[in-house]
Amino acid sequence: MLEELQGKGLLIHHWDTDGICSARLLLEHLSDKNIDNYTPQLGNYYLTEEELERYSKYDFIIVVDMALPEDNILRLAKNTKIMIFDHHLGKIITQVYHHNPIIKGENPDDYPSASWIVNGFLGNNVNLFALLGIIGDHEQKIKNNSIFYSLITDFCQKNNLTFDDMLKMAYLLDSNYKLGDKNAVEKAPHLLQGDVSADDILKNTQWNKNFTMLNEEIKKQLDSPSDEINGIIMKKINTSYNIISTITRKVAWESGKNTLVLNTGFFDDKDQLYVRSTKNMESMIQRGKSLGFKCGGKKEVLGAILPKDKTDSFVEEIMKFLTEK
Known about the structure:
Diaminopimelate Epimerase, Chain A, domain 1, alpha/beta, inorganic pyrophosphatase (n-terminal core), 6-stranded mixed β-sheet, 5-stranded parallel β-sheet
């Protein structure tokens, strides 16, 4: 199917490790094609008007590890062949090729990352990039998934690596988007082409500099006080770094409690909201979309971009949802 794509192509991918590794796998497989790769404006889970106009000129577009809004996809599909590879919640977009086992009812535990879905679609053996996407999305939590943790452990043993090495690689790749460097995100899938080894990633000078800077900022934000309301951790941060998912993950996993984090410092006119919960967040994701917010996520995760004058009311709704039995 991919081999049939003709003309000038575009690969739109998420900015995190899973998106970068998924893009790397696709770009290598399609090395004989003429393909550009872009990530949306960092923090945006949608395409801007300028992006939609520019991307409409491509002959084909592959979207990976992003649940772009249906209206974005349908607009692009008017002039362009679209293929989607994803593992986020949403609805099947029947007008395009939409490969997402999870929204078709499959068990999310069997498809822990877009990189794994892409790798399987391509018919590849287990490899570094298929597994890095998984670790980037789940970090230590993947140890609770016995099938995939076994795959990761076997891979590490065969390649003289540790789980911590894999985790460090994911942090290094993520450092590009967390520092707001869109160009570096888009270059990363190309830097991973060919016979790139784990050691090449672990010793990348710039990514290690990024990593050090980020750790200082993450520690600063984690050290700032949080509130606990009815057993829910609520944390407000103000940072220009795109670290809200990292902060939420760390607070939620260390506390074992439902966690809501709000960042007022990334956008000038909007707020970032991120939630990790033991409850299924799908209904609140749909609620956010119905209110016109850019909102998405997975079963246990909600991420949203909110107009500052709408933040308090939506946070109130989510807190009420999380406290309901």
